[in-house]
Automatic annotation (TrEMBL):
UniProt record similarity statement: Belongs to the FMO family.
EC number(s) per entry: 1.-.-.-
Source species of the chain: Littorina saxatilis
Keywords: FAD, Flavoprotein, Monooxygenase, NADP, Oxidoreductase
Pfam family, one: FMO-like
Record protein name field: Flavin-containing monooxygenase
Molecular function GO labels: flavin adenine dinucleotide binding; N,N-dimethylaniline monooxygenase activity; NADP binding
Keyword Ligase found: no
Cofactor(s), names only, from the UniProt record: FAD
Amino acid sequence: MAFPDFPFDKQLPSFIKHQDVLQYLEKYATHFNLLQHIKFETQVIKVQPIHCPKEQSPTGQDQKWEVTSAPVLDSKKSVTEEYDAVIVCNGHYAVPLIPKVPGLETFSGEIIHSHTYRAPEDFKNQTVLCLGAAASGQDISIDLSSEAKMVYLCHNKSLIQSPLPPNVQQKPGIQSVSGSTVTLNNGEEISADCLLFCTGYHFRFPFLTESCHLHIEEERLTPLYKHLIHTEFPTLSFIGICKTICPFPQFHVQILLVLAALDGSFQLPSKEEMDADTEADYQKRLSEGLPKRHAHTMGNRQWAYNDEIARLAGCELIQKSVKNLYDAVHETRVKNLVGYKRVNYEMVNECSYSEAC
């Protein structure tokens, strides 16, 4: 998970807590002297393209960007500045996606999203129905089992093959809700104290004006070349749009490609060529049966994608050991969802890893 140029503390276990990730990023910023360039407690309110003569633009583009920001605690003190490029890195785990379920508004218990889940103690002796069995749904269900009376993991995927705690049962997805009763897709009815939606997030960029021409339809963002660079405004880019990835290594090669495009060391194709490349990627996903909402989901695709981005950027490829370890942990997780985090690993060289003692 680490950036290639800054490893995690070797004293940490392989599966770390969010506090450790925060500390890692703080150390990264200090090590590379980045804090002096960061405005904290500042909200970006508006971003819009403005045109200027090419000879006045260091990037050679005929546009700049007007960015309006303000202190979080005093939005009246806004300032508007001009920039040559904008790189959007606001993530996509802030706006919960809760699907429409008939009768959901009648539910008599608590409705929450995984975004606000914190501790299993909050659900002591309750019957909890978790909707969604991707990473969050699986992890939270296991976590809840220590305190909840019963956990129903509801999803429409193939059954999880790993042994689960005795009070965690897999069930089909939700059909409807009435009071405290939840009807599943197979007609079975369950009385629940809490509905916990582990159903992902929406992409949201409230600071981008309509003139930025970013379109979001069923969680697909267009027009983005390589899930990264706006094809109409090449000085507008988006880091970290892809889902189901090993994040920091991918962010590393993505930003290097963006910088290469900005300084001219990488010549972007024409808008028409970039749009065609984007459409080809999307159509390939559709032909494989993926819905539109998975237009930016990577999974096994991430490794070929990362290598392609690195080659275009002219930088080193991500070490093979990262892929090998990622794949091995995924395989272990499938077989042992409850205990896979108890194992620690260490990198041996750029191609291999080993289990740490």
